[in-house]
Structure formats: C-alpha cells, structure tokens
Amino acid sequence: MQINSVGRSAGRRATAAAAYRAGERLRDERNGQLYNYSRRRDVLHTEIFLPAHVAGAAAEWAGNREKLWNAAERAEKRHDSRVAREYQVALPSELSPTQRLALARALSIEIAERYKVAVDLAVHEPRADGDPRNFHAHLLTTTREVTPAGLGAKTGLDMHARQRRRRQLPDSRQEFVALRERWATLTNQALKEAQIDARVDHRSLAAQGIDRESLRIPFVALKIERRGVRSFVAEQLRAEYHARVQRRLERQGGKSAEQSAIPTLPVSARSSGSAQNMEREQSPETHSADHPKDLEGLRREAREIWLRIRHESARERDATERETATERTAEDDLGL
User: Fold this and answer.
1) Per the structure, how many domains does the chain have?
2) Does one domain contain both 60 and 181?
3) Looking at the structure, do residues 253 and 163 belong to the same domain, yes or no?
4) Is 207 among the domain residues?
5) Helices 97-115 and 172-193: crossing angle, nearest 10°?
6) Rounded to the nearest 10 degrees, what angle do helices 219-226 and 232-252 cross at?
7) Which segment of 33-37, 54-58, 158-162, 238-242 scores lowest on mean pLDDT?
8) Which end of the chain is more exposed for a tag (fewer CB within 10 A), N or C?
9) How high does pLDDT run on average in the chain?
10) Angle formed at CA 3 by CA 135 and CA 86, multiple of 5 degrees
11) Residue 215 main-chain phi, psi, to 5 deg
12) Which residues in 220-252 are b (16+ Cβ under 10 Å) and which e?
C-alpha cells in the first residue's frame, strides 16, 4: 500500500486525478479545463463508495464523479490545500479478476466507513510494456467527511494533529501502520480463501526478523533504463548492494538466504512503476572505472536525471494543453 495526498502546492487537482484514474472526461468548474482520459484501455472497473449514513439527495451528487470532485475543490480555500487522498494498492496476480475486484471493494468500503469519506475506486490492469503481474487499484478519497449537507470537516489522515489528540486518536504515523496492516490482513484472507499459499507482510524485513535487505532503486532511474538509456545511479546502487551481500556471505562463510534471493528479472520485464511492487533486478554487469564513485558524481547524475525529467514533463504538459485546446474548440463548434 502506498498512501499519497493530492495537493494544490504541487499543482495538482482532484478533478484531474479522478479523471486520469477512472479513464473519463471531467471538467473542472474552477478553471473551466477539461481533463479527458477516455482513451485509456487499462481501466477494468470504477465505482464510488459512500458511508452508509449518506443517502437520498446527498448520494446523488456524491455518487457523480464530476460533481463529487468539483465539490472537493470548492470546499478548499487555501492555495496549498490537500484536495484528495489516495491509497494505491497492489492486487495479487494469483487471484482471479473477480477475487481481485472483491478485495479492492472490501478495502474501499472499510475506508469509506472508517473516515466517513467518499471513495472513488479504479482498478487497473498491467500495461503492455510493464510487469504482467502489476494489477493494482487506486482509491481516491475526499479529505473531508461526506454529510447529507455536503462536505464537512477534515477527517482521517488529513485531520489536524491537535484534533486527533483531542479525540484521543492515534497519531498519523500509527494510522499509516494500522492501514497497511489492515490491507495485509484483507489480502491474506483473500489468498487463503482462494487456497493460495502466498502471503504478504506489511512489516519491514528487519521487523520480520529476516536478515536481508531489499534493493531500492529510484523509479526515475528505472524509467530511464526502460528507455534504453544507461543510469549510473541505478548501476551504482546495484553494485553497492551486491558488494554488501558479498561481504555478508564472506562473514557467514557460505551461501545464505540472501544470495539465493537475488532476483534475476531483466529490465524489459520490470514493474510499470507502482511503488508497492517489488523490483527484481538482474545480476550486475561488470562495472567500468568511469562510474561515479564519489558523492559529487552522484550529484551530477541526479541533476542530469532531474533536468531530463523536467524537460519531458514540460513536453507532456504542452501536449496536454494543446489537446485540451483542441477539445474546447471542437465543443464550441458543436455548441456543447
């Protein structure tokens, strides 16, 4: 489970986030912009969940995706407000499509009732150029309670720390852990009911008592490699990881579980980028002497990555703006 916020300080909008995840056309009433992602073909299921106490007229507007997220935008007055909260979860590929959907729906219902929020669920299948196991779901939620009269006070992880203490609720860190633990429980229940031996654990390897460390490579570095471009940062991290493994094996005097766990999936079959999916790296190639070994070299490489990503983001933003302008012109011609 990966938990993020959608905030204005990062230039994000709830309407755009909802349109992208659901693969739909949504218009933002605050800026008049149309967000059109109806061409997406990897969206398997979308559904909005509301807390049980919301019914009647309130359910009509809150159950409408465009009305719901425009209401979320209107409810926030600050320029740096959080307008939505997202829970992104990995769905076990071992489960059937029906079982994966039932698992995602179960979490959506629990979060809606736990925080009294609206939950906009979107289940995605793996993309053609990504890991074929990468079934996942996005749960986009309001940061405010849904009431019969509209959106109310901040709730859940977006509640102010003073309010959490006043209500004798655990702090945000404990809430994060509780959510991840609950998702692990739901996932393991689904796997058990499907008679699948695999299990997941929300705890770190150290907390599980496993004497092994995971290999973490920044997503931007993996994204560069998938384009066929060499990433010195990724190669440096792999080299350091395998050097640590080798030193540990030498101390132990033989093969350990960590050595047998070194993954071998090639770059072309890596995950499509969901943070919750395990990245399996191939054994490192022979590293040449021109790799950056010092801190300054790593800084230069990081700056190159940042400049490249910024340039690509600008091109994507320009393309989106051109597409939006074309759609507006077409709508004006049709009198929409």
Assistant:
1) 3
2) yes
3) no
4) no
5) 150
6) 110
7) 54-58
8) C
9) 81
10) 75
11) -95, 115
12) bbbbbbbeeeebbbbbbbbeebbeebeeeeeee
200 located within any domain: no
Q: Determine what percent of the chain is predicted with pLDDT higher than 70.
A: 74
The answer to whether residue 25 is domain-embedded is yes
Tokens of 118: 């609206």
- HSE of 164, CA atoms in CB hemisphere, 13 A: 16
In this structure, are residues 8 and 78 in contact, taking their beta carbons and an 8 Å threshold? yes
Q: Are residues 259 and 325 in the same domain?
A: no
Q: Which structural domain, as residue segments, surrounds residue 231? A: 219-291
Residue 199 falls within a domain, yes or no? no
| Tokens standing for residue 178 | 């509780």
Q: Would you state the structure tokens that stand for residue 156, as one six-digit string? A: 């859940």
- The stretches of the chain forming alpha helices (DSSP H) are 14-22, 57-62, 65-74, 97-115, 161-166, 172-193, 219-226, 232-252, 257-260, 295-334
| Shared domain check, 258 and 306 | no
The pLDDT of residue 298:
66
Buried b (16+ CB within 10 A) or exposed e, 103-114: bbbebbbbbbee
Sequence-ordered list of residues with C-beta below 8 angstroms from that of 267, at least 6 positions apart, any chain: 222, 225, 226, 282
* One domain, residues 250 and 116: no
Which distant-in-sequence residues (6+ apart) come within 8 Å of 227 by Cβ? none
How do residues 160-202 score in pLDDT, each as one tens digit? 989 899 988 989 899 999 999 999 999 999 999 999 999 999 9
- Do 159 and 19 lie in one domain? The reply is yes
Contact 146, 116 (CB under 8 A): yes
Number of residues that this document lists for the chain: 336
